[in-house]
Amino acid sequence: MKIKVLSRNPDDYLRETKRDIQKVPRNYDPALHPFEAPREYVRALNATKLERVFAKPFLGALDGHRDGVRSLCKHPTALSLLLSGACDGEVKVWSLAKRSCLQTIQAHEGMVQGLCMHQSGRYFFSVGNDKTIKQWSLSECGQIEEEPQSTILGKTIFTSIDHHWSENKFATCGQQLDIWDEDRTEPVRSFTWGVDSLHAVKFNPIETNIVGSCASDRSIILYDMRGAAPLRKVILKLRSNTIAWNPMEAFIFTVANEDYNLYSFDMRKLSMPVTVHMDHVSAVMDVDYSPTGREFASAGYDKVVRIFQADRTHSREIYHTKRMQRVETVRWSLDNKYILSGSDEMNIRIWKAQASEKLGVLKPREKTAFNYNSKLKEKFAFHPEVKRISRHRHVPKMIYNQQKEMKIIRQSQKRKEANRRKHSKPGAVPFVPERKKSIIKEVE
Questions:
Q1: DSSP-assigned beta bridge partners for residue 84
Q2: Between vectors from CA 259 to CA 256 and to CA 263, what angle results, nearest 5°?
Q3: Rounded mean pLDDT, 168-175
Q4: Nearest to residue 111, comparing CAs of 125, 131, 92?
Q5: Can you give the pLDDT at residue 264?
Q6: What is the model's pTM?
Q7: Using CA atoms, how far apart are residues 219 and 9, in angstroms rounded to an integer?
Q8: Picking from 12-21, 300-309, 433-442, which range would have the lowest pLDDT averaged per residue?
Q9: What confidence tier does 402 reach under pLDDT thresholds 50, 70, 90?
């Protein structure tokens, strides 16, 4: 007679300490778990509810400026350092860890229009309404020398500045776009296209010789630093305020427009944007990508900060406080955890990139639970109840009413267009996709 004996190693079932939980054997055969899907749905619903309960994104404010915050600049090597420039010409260095100001200097007479940092983090540049470019030395502990290392006096006002990602060059814009070498007081190369002034300039972080800029004639212009003339431009119906390049996709950039939308373009085909990002109810002032390139934050004239996924039309998050006024500038921290916004009422605010994320060191079991819950939410994301709870946000009354009004306007326009098409000759009123409505023309 053959007898089968179950043999188990008792060490597999012993607890390492008396405070540890008991080990339970599990059989993952789906036939033995007929109620697995309903059980997981309830867990996903609870996880989504708890996410909204713990969504407290506001971390603190950096108070100290005496005028509206005009520009922010991240330190490339120290996560805890931040530079800010205000409308009264002051530049401050902040410690984000201590939430305190380390130093203040009177950099310019009039507004500080732009700040940019060298990739080593040892010095930075500032431009202002006093037609000067100044280079400042910055120590590792965040101390600025009282006097600038060098000062370049320009012929016109500089409206923006950005530093090259690998070389000792930087670009400024105003009446024209100038490429400067750090060792020279005259621009190495100047680009002009038309007569209108430029107000934003950004280097591509991957294709580092490509520069993008926004002009006052409602156009977005692309330049190659190695060429003698601008590459191409696209003209929109309304002016774009700023431009941001995707740090992971060399060809993709996003512009913040005056028509309440953001437009993501592929620079190989400017005739139509890749995605139109809607939700703001006023002009969009600034935009900045996360280090992963999957999301970006936008600052609005409607006193809110929104977070968009790069491939989605609508925002996944909206941040606002009662005292926050028009948001002029926004930056996403290099560790992908925080968002910094500077606004008109002289405050810099620190937000969490994930509103319900728990800060600090997580225990292994906490990590496992968070990962499990996130996968559950992803699995049941399109179930009506889970979707409704995860999308729900409390917004200021002004924005709520504006959104309702804009919805009515859009529906009215669609209805009029449908009626016009119905009572016209076939083909007389063509279908124009939403992405093409804002584009006037592309110029090579």
A1: 72, 92
A2: 40
A3: 94
A4: 131
A5: 97
A6: 0.90
A7: 73
A8: 12-21
A9: very high
User: How far are the Cα atoms of 279, 414, 421, 430 from residue 418, in angstroms, in the given order?
Assistant: 24, 6, 5, 10
What are the pLDDT digits (tens) for 297-308? 999 999 999 999
Give pLDDT tens digits for 55-114. 999 999 999 999 999 999 999 999 999 999 999 999 999 999 999 999 999 999 989 999
Contact criterion met (CB below 8 Å) for 255 and 242? yes
* HEC-encoded secondary structure of the chain: CCCCCCCCCHHHHCCCCCCCCCCCCCCCCHHHCCCHHHHHHHHHHHHHHHHHHCCCCEEEEEECCCCCEEEEEECCCCCCEEEEEECCCEEEEEECCCCEEEEEEECCCCCEEEEEECCCCCEEEEEECCCEEEEEEECCCCCECCCCCEEEECCCCCCEEEECCCCCEEEEECCCEEEEECCCCCCCEEECCCCCCEEEEEECCCCCCEEEEEECCCEEEEEECCCCCCCEEEEECCCEEEEEECCCCCCEEEEEECCCCEEEEECCECCCCCEEEECCCCCEEEEEECCCCCEEEEEECCCCEEEEECCCCEEEEEECCCCCCCEEEEEECCCCCEEEEEECCCEEEEEECCCCCCCCCCCHHHHHHHHHHHHHHHHCCCCHHHHHHHHCCCCCHHHHHHHHHHHHHHHHHHHHHHHHHHCCCCCCCCCCCCCCCCEEEEEC
Neighbours of 199 (CB within 10 A): 19
Q: Please check whether residue 62 is in contact with residue 350, taking contact to mean a CB–CB distance below 8 angstroms.
A: yes
